[in-house]
Design brief:
- Pfam families: CbiA (PF01656).
- This is CobQ/CobB/MinD/ParA nucleotide binding domain-containing protein.
- By secondary structure, this protein is of the alpha/beta class.
- Helix 6 crosses helix 7.
Amino acid sequence: MDFKRLTIVVGHYGSGKTEISINYAVYIRQMGKEVEIVDLDVVNPYFRSREVRKELLEKWGIKVVGVEEKYANADVPVISRTVYGALYSTEKHAVFDVGGDDVGAMPLGQYRHIIYEQDPEVLLVVNVNRPFTKDADSVIKYLKAIEEASKIKVTHLVNNTHMSYETTVDDVLKGLEVVEEVSRKTGIPIKMVTVKRDLVNLLPQIDYSVFPLDLYMKTPWDKM
């Protein structure tokens, strides 16, 4: 599967943006490329890529930038200047994990001119099992709100319809129908269909790239 030097991952709360950002960065690393994750989620106190910073650094050699270590558990918008390094780098790829919804996407706006110079791929992650993105029109509404807030256009759609560890093949296929309708109505192509690794061989043949996911993020109650 092709990827660009700069990938930006946006979407609604609970869509699985952070999980995809981590898995995508690992995939790029496995392809032999240096890669960083840029954590731009300054809204959601849970499920942020910096929560698996040490695991990524130790296992994959992937650096997490965006929020300084001393502010790692703070719910304040303290964004490190290392973000500019990720944007301008000619040697490393970067995956931006952006906060949910239009509010979470707003910090992207300050970098929009630099981002467009880099010819990025901007992935909208869709989980139709979330209450406000159950159908194509709702997804399109979210898409437009995120684009307006970030001043950046979505280039690709990602079907990540899931129920966390309880996800079934039916969930994935139900989501794909909705994402295909979004694609037809907007003209935005589908980049991939993501699915838990243990379900990959259970999926029927589909016309899109299937991207296996390992689940890195855990809920606060899973950590207890």
